[in-house]
Design brief:
The complex is a heterodimer of chains A (131) and B (157). Chain A has 131 residues and is of the alpha/beta class. Chain A is built from five helices and four strands; from the N terminus they run βαβαβαβαα. By secondary structure, chain B is of the alpha/beta class.
Amino acid sequence: MTDKEITGIVVTHGQLGEELLRTVRLIVGEVRGCYALSGSDLGDEKVVESIHEILKAHKAGAAVVFVDYFGGSCGASCVRATRHLEGVKVISGVNLPMLLDFVTKQGTMGLDEIVDHLIHRGQESVRVVEI
Amino acid sequence: MVILFRIDDRLIHAQVVVGWGRRLKPDRIILADDQISSEGWEKELYASAAGPDFKAAILSLSGAVEQIRGGVFDSEKVFLLARGPAEALEMLEMGLEAKEINVGGLHYREGREKITENVWVDGTERGLLREIAKRGIILEARALPGDRKITINSKVV
């Protein structure tokens, strides 16, 4: 893992995060520096602790924390874990196109730029499909 | 120039567009298929699956061979997709040149036997792959570019 890589942590209810990452691997192959945490399997404090452990393992480099639903306990834990940290952003409403871009466009953008890109990608992927 | 010639019964899908596309960065994905190229809405469906990252061309088998041989895509890096061994062989018989074909996805269905995790064939398809192998073409079975390259020529004889 190079310094330029940005760590990804997907925090969700149930096994959604794990399954999202499993699906990402199915589509692009092995990915490194990405983790899933289930907020409903772990206590809130444990979620905060796990986020800190992952960040520490990556020497507190840049990170994006993806959360499924803002307004739930997972979102609150993400905010609690990261609000005082530099170089860590939280994005809510995680979806598959967003994660695919996160793992395939690593290294081409800095943290702020990739966060803007992921928000745009996530939003534009929600649309009426008309063929 | 065709940089990836792939047999995949799912045609243009996420593994192709994201898994292969973002690694090899083609300019265009050509889907060669007589059925889809003749159906307006299906054509549009697969063309939109390639975008916005790549240009798409949905062509008949003969149209694809003619345009590739005619040099239409010489200045582009191209993925060429066919849904099965029959379609791939038909294009080779029309004069398409290839050194290697990526047998990327022939998924399980009843009557097919397993060659690798992502390649299952029935007797007819095995025979067609054998015909392709006889032309000296390497058949390699990878779903994704980072997978181990498995040559399956010896498994279709």
